Amino acid sequence: MRNKMLNRAVVGIIGAVWCILALFVWITPSAEISLSERRKLAQFPQITFKSLIMADFMEKFEQYAKDQFPYRFSFRTAKAYTRFYIFGQKDNNGVYMKDGYAVKLEYPLNEDSIRKATDKFGYLYEKYMKDKNIKTYLTVVPDKGYFLSGKNGYPSMDYKRLFEIMEKNTDFAKLIRLEDILEIDDYYKTDIHWDQEKILKVSDKIKEAIGIGQKNTDYKTIEVKLPFYGVYYGHSALPMKPDRLRYLTNDIIERCTVYNIETGKTAPVYDTEKLSGNDPYDVYLSGAASLLVIENPSVQNGKELVVFRDSFGSSLAPLLLDSYSKITMIDIRYISSDLIGEYVAFDNQDVLFLYSTSVLNSSSMFK
Amino acid sequence: MVFSSITFLYYFMPVVTGIYFLSPKGFKNSVLLFASLVFYGWGEPKYIIFMGVSILVNYILGLLIEKNSNNPWSRRWLVVSVVFSLGMLGYFKYADFLIENINYATGSSIPLLKVVLPIGISFYTFQILSYTIDVYRGEARAQRNLISLATYVAFFPQLIAGPIVRYVDIARALESRQHSMENARIGLRRFLFGISKKVLIANTLGELCTIFAAAQEKTVLFYWIYAIAFTLQIYFDFSGYSDMAIGLGRIFGFEFLENFNYPFISKSITEFWRRWHMSLGTWFRDYLYIPLGGNRTGKSRWLFNIFTVWFLTGLWHGAAWNFVVWGIMFALLLMSEKLWLGDYLRKIPGIISNIYVMLIVVISFVIFDAPDLGAAAERIFSMFGMNHMPFSDVQSVYYLRSYAVVFVIAMIASTDLPKRIAERIRKTRHGEIAMTVAEPMVCVILLLLTTAYLVDASFNPFLYFRF
Q: Do A17 and B447 count as a contact with CB atoms less than 8 A apart?
């Protein structure tokens, strides 16, 4: 009798939890996007005879079931906690935590990728810049692992070798080294990027190397009220404290316009509508774009800068605006190198290649 | 469909269980059969046809074998059944392997058939053969009800990766079985422990194996980390699947035989194979080894029988030479243990003989996991420092540290120590009550944790699905 009651109780408790969860799964309305993961979530797939026979429906349904699971982020956090604090694992989804910073494991160094990147830069130089009275500069932004991985026993890429290859293979450009002036505090804790407020020293060094001399002093700091959860927050799935996103502005920057050649739209340098979107870092130049032209009516010196860049360039470019009447931003991850000439006339400009180690280490994305 | 998926846990299982227990007794097998076909067809709908044809043909052959039990046609129909079933398996699983080897040996260039292996075919073929052979031997009556036979073959808990259930062991339950709260409790507990083994341990160790495979720079230490991780992964993956199958079977009123019995505590390879994938070992023993004469023959014939069984056991696992070598390696070890090594192993301390077993097992699974024999040799040489690589580096040490707790948990959980501790606690004054209270709590926590891992996971099929 006692055993019967115990059996009922045990089955009842487990069954009830299981059924309640299943019920939640069935009745919870589908969400469109996951803000923490910065991606669209899978929706209920279309049922057709072909999709059933070819098992496409089933494959998509599996993704849908995972993506639309109720309290998805809480479950992901539970998993992260279990990995870190029960199983003692050092990373979750390739992101580790050190000194309050979420850092992606970026290793090993892919020398082929670095060489391909420098070859691509060399190709661009030969095709568009050689004998055009253009001065070229190159700078590499170290990822957060540069400061934290090696000394804390995490695997990291061989940065020394990376810089050696970059220096050796880019004799057409003057290398501006940033790794000795940057430190981990210059980066967001939850995101991959650097904090614009902390990189005035970077823009100063670049200006000094280019020879335009003017140092930054006159900026107003705007602090965004919304909390900033960076991309590594979503990867790690740990309940980290949000960063504060701040941007530096002044009259010069506020008078500038950013023209997106691909979409034909014009926006301000700081597109504050993006602050409530998927990625608040898109506030800088409205986020990823293949070709942008920043026109600066306040500076009439006729000087132009062309920046081949990744997303780190978006927050740096506004700090260079006081020296140029026009800055063109090119992202060869989104436009073929051969097509650039149709949109940008290369003649008597400064050209800066600005890439992070993470992008250089996976340069197959360059077109 | 895989057990370790949100689809199975929160769509398939609640619906099937609900319909099954609400349906009248006479429809329960039909419900299970329909559910099994959905389960099987979820990943590969077209292969339902091949399984259906196999079931139908062997249903008819079973009846013919029984009908002709007193004349030579019984044997002939059995031969038809064996040739048909093994022919299907041979075509899907071994045809390209055969062509590749013919091409290699003769220099010809016969085009490969490139047929895709239907999932679970090795398992359900052996189940079908067990049915017709049992009927031929008179150990079971031919099944008149096609749905019952189809339910036996296609029953979703054990369809894809076993345990291989002998027809005689399940024949009565197919007709009439008991459902009880006790069965449900045992079944639920077993299922949740099984899925936790798969999701929390096997998949985690699988990640490490994937990282190893992708690593550009490897060290001796990293090779050992991988070898041990894969050995533990395959145990937790496969035994976890068996636990889930046994647990689900229990919920639906079936009692499947055990498939694993703490193989890593073995003190000889002979003992290891009595504890590892027991249903496959039993199948080969009952349907091949004993019919060949077993050990009741001369020594040379006996050794031949062992060799044949293990050659085929290796080949059953996959159409590649590394599986054949893997099987032959165990054949030679088993022979040597039966001839002289066994006596020696019994005399030395248990810890030494266990280390001997685990060393062999770890190396065997390196061969098992390798894409080909060359890669297997390269990995084994590397483990013993024969490939001129450093002993360790930052990456190896990092992963050793990062997975150390998982390794320790997995190693302890692969022994019978947790079971013995639980039994000891249960025998104490308040132990029984504590265990009873803890049981649902632990089960619910495991359900939530596996769900958390599944929500944040990429697709991780069971390792034995490929067989």
A: yes
